[in-house]
Design brief:
By secondary structure, the protein is of the alpha/beta class. The chain has one domain: Leucine Aminopeptidase, subunit E, domain 1 (3-Layer(aba) Sandwich), CATH 3.40.220.10. The protein contains five helices and six strands. A six-stranded mixed β-sheet has the order 1-6-5-2-4-3, with helices on both faces. The longest helix has 18 residues. The protein starts with a strand and ends with a helix. The model has no long low-confidence stretch (mean pLDDT 97).
Length: 167
């Protein structure tokens, strides 16, 4: 059974096997969590992402999918990049958000990762309401069949921490 923990802090400081990056589809860095992971991890992550773009993901990583790279200088072994959906009031994209968590855990299992740190995917510039994102994330991880022993949700601020920890 997977243990789920909640931490308020910086995901780039987490000593885990795999850190999940809320990436953009280009895989080439961006703002928020994505930018922080690329800055803290250094050029090795960007180099690995460029190699993925040149091989399997020429058009970018599709929303809801996940792929792994080195973690560079991060205190983790790997970064699992996943592309969250942009929130829409007109279209229910909950299944795509849930897929980010399921696919990230699937990739972590393939890597042999036992500890995984997740951010609050899609809650920044993609504007997903925090409470709904927390519900989807925690329910999805609880229901996932995975060999991962600990899933750590690393939330940047108190509001996010409270939304996730209350699930």
């Amino acid at each position: 059974m997977t243990i789920i923990t909640f931490v308020q802090g910086d995901i780039t400081d987490q000593h885990v096997d795999a850190v999940v990056n809320a990436a953009n589809s280009s895989l080439l860095g961006g703002g928020g969590v994505d930018g922080a992971i690329h800055r803290a991890g250094g050029p090795a992550i960007l180099d690995a992402c460029r190699a993925l773009r040149a091989s399997h993901y020429g058009k970018g990583l599709p929303t809801g999918k996940a792929v792994a790279t080195t973690a560079g200088r991060l205190p983790a072994r790997w970064v699992v990049h996943t592309v969250g959906p942009v929130f829409s009031r007109q279209e229910d994209r909950s299944d795509l958000l849930a897929s980010c968590y399921r696919e990230s855990l699937r990739v972590a299992d393939e890597l042999g990762a036992r500890t995984v740190a997740f951010p609050a995917i899609s809650t920044g510039v993609y504007r997903w309401p925090m409470e709904d994102a927390a519900r989807i994330a925690v329910e999805t991880v609880r229901a996932a069949e995975t060999a991962v022993e600990e899933v750590r949700f690393v939330l940047f601020d108190e509001r996010a921490y409270e939304a996730f920890a209350s699930q």
